């Protein structure tokens, strides 16, 4: 699954993902359109930011299901 597919699935905007990963939104946009490149380090930071957001959402869902706060 591509970065864009995972980002959309998590309902993350390009701006939020780019900010969390320390990558410019413009650069991320070009990459998602297939018109730009990212370094290995930038891709790793985007992957890590996606993983953190997925984990945050899992915890939020568990809290909703269990009534924890």
Helix and strand layout, with pairings?
Blueprint: H1 3-9, H2 14-21, H3 25-32, H4 40-66
Helix pairs in contact: 2-4
What's the short story on this structure?
This protein has 69 residues and is mainly α. 72% of the residues lie in helices and 0% in strands. Helix 2 packs across helix 4.
Can you offer a commentary on this structure?
With 69 residues, this protein is mainly alpha-helical. It has a single domain, classed as 434 Repressor (Amino-terminal Domain) (Orthogonal Bundle), CATH 1.10.260.40. It contains 4 helices and no strands. Helix 2 crosses helix 4. The longest helix is centred in the last third of the chain and has 27 residues. The relative contact order is 0.16.
| CATH architectural category | Orthogonal Bundle
Major sheet description: none
Number of helices: 4
Q: Report the portion of residues in β strands.
A: under 5%
Secondary-structure element order, as H and E?
HHHH
**Structural class determined from secondary elements:** mainly alpha
As a percent range, the share of helical residues equals: over 70%
Key traits:
mainly alpha; 72% helix; 434 Repressor (Amino-terminal Domain); 69 residues
């Amino acid at each position: 699954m591509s970065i864009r597919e995972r980002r959309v699935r998590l309902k993350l905007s390009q701006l939020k993902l780019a900010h969390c990963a320390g990558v410019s939104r413009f650069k991320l946009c070009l990459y998602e359109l297939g018109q730009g490149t990212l370094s290995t380090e930038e891709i790793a930071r985007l992957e890590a930011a996606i993983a953190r957001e997925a984990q945050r959402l899992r915890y939020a869902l568990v809290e909703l299901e269990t009534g924890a706060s």
